[in-house]
Write a structure and sequence with these properties.
The structure holds two protein chains of two kinds. Helix content of chain A is 4%, strand content 31%. By secondary structure, chain A is mainly β. The N terminus and C terminus of chain A are likely disordered. The longest helix of chain B has 14 residues. Chain B has a three-stranded antiparallel beta sheet with strand order 1-2-3, with no helix packed on it. The chains are: A mainly beta, B alpha+beta. Strand 4 of chain A pairs antiparallel with strand 4 of chain B, so a sheet runs across the interface.
Chain lengths: 153, 110
């Protein structure tokens, strides 16, 4: 796992095992197929997902693993998606939800619950997909008002 | 784009096992019945559009050689019931089976 030691993600000697591939990129970011998870200890539970395209352009997203943060979130996958990702065991599955953060109003952070990124930890393949029970959830779930909050200065 | 005219209760077949039937027309609303294999994802296009726009809004674009966004956003602090600490993104071996996705995966394994 790569730990970011400053606000700027820098290369460290830490063994990097948190790469994965999104063969189709993200919806709207088709070529950005190389993904890397980074984190700053101060930012947890938020993680940074860095996506890179073949030209070397990169884009960062703030993501969370929803377990323990968003209660009652039980996404179901379409069978086709589970089959393509070869997901047979929930222990192989990593779930990431993209967070939209307005720099000026961080407490209004919204989480996309209907289009998570699902990664097979074993094959390191992932994709952003629409969950089968999307009608139960929102693409703009208010993260902060719904959790126990300690507002930082 | 292929355009076909259909009346109520007429249908269209797509490929192997997908049938789209016009069930009812009420004003400017058309009720469409879809028969498809369970594994085929079907959802309203708005869902995909909303995910695409969410992705755009959430993205921090970075210069070609630079590693980081120009300015990191201030992240809200969240207190979790249990803080799992930096093991959280457990791509490097740890099993963090905390997400209730098991049901969906079970269906696939069966």
């Amino acid at each position: 796992m790569r730990v970011l030691t400053s606000a700027v993600p820098v290369e460290t000697e830490t063994r990097v095992t948190n790469h994965f591939v999104l063969p189709q990129g993200l919806i709207g970011f088709r070529d950005y197929s190389h993904a890397e998870l980074l984190y700053l200890p101060d930012h947890l539970p938020f993680l940074w997902m860095k996506l890179t395209n073949p030209e070397g352009d990169s884009v960062h997203f703030v993501v969370i693993e929803p377990g323990g943060i968003i209660s009652d979130y039980e996404p179901e996958l379409f069978e086709n998606d589970a089959a393509v990702l070869e997901l047979h065991d929930s222990r192989d599955t990593m779930l990431l939800n993209i967070v939209t953060i307005d720099q000026n109003r961080p407490l209004d952070a919204k989480v996309n619950l209907i289009g998570p990124i699902i990664v097979n930890r074993r094959t390191k393949l992932g994709r952003q997909l629409v969950i089968a029970n999307y009608s139960n959830y929102s693409a703009h779930y208010a993260l902060v008002s719904s959790t126990t909050v300690a507002v930082s200065a | 784009m292929l355009v076909l005219s259909r009346k109520i209760n007429e249908a269209i077949i797509i490929g192997d096992g997908i049938e789209i039937r016009i069930n009812r027309i009420e004003g400017d609303v058309v009720k469409i019945g879809i028969i498809a294999p369970r594994e085929i994802p079907i959802f309203r296009k708005e869902v995909q559009v909303s995910i695409a726009s969410t992705n755009q809004a959430a993205a921090f674009k970075t210069p070609r050689q630079g590693g980081a966004p120009h300015a990191l956003p201030q992240l809200p602090k969240i207190n979790r019931p249990k803080d799992h600490g930096p093991n959280n993104p457990a791509m490097d071996g740890g099993l963090m089976n905390r997400t209730p996705i098991a049901t969906a995966v079970k269906a696939n394994a069966a």
